[in-house]
Design brief:
Blueprint lengths: L15 H23 L1 H9 L6 H23 L6 H27 L20 H20 L14
Amino acid sequence: MSGFVKATLAKRPRVREAQKVAYLYAAILVIFVLAQLYTFDDFLKLMDSFWLPGGEPLTHLLAGIIVVSEVFALPFLLSMNLSRLMRVVSMGLSWLVPIIWIKLSFWLVFAANAASNIGYLGTVVRLIPGWWSIFFSLALGILAGWSSWGLWPFVIHHRHKSIN
């Protein structure tokens, strides 16, 4: 059973810029998660103020998913030694973070426009939601896409047909 989970080296990036983009995205996520965890109790209250469907239990679950996703996206973005499964999970979580923030941004701009803070930085820094938060969340999605493209964990084999 000791050989079941084996950490492997990350593939070389397709282009050097992809690793730089991944590091930038990882730095943003580290700032987010540190600020959110610094005042996590207040972050939960902030998330409750969004009046999301599902009430308090689902809002608290979403807050936990956000923080856990931000943390577990980092190993892929930092090209750490990981098992193949964890590399794929980490890459998927790097996508989940902007998806959640895009949906929350749209919700706060169009449905619950009474929110006084988007929560990117928890309650440490107050960032009023608006169109900028939608565009910033989309930019996070672009960073996630570029990182995934550049650090794609699978080798793609091209099959050549031979003429006999």
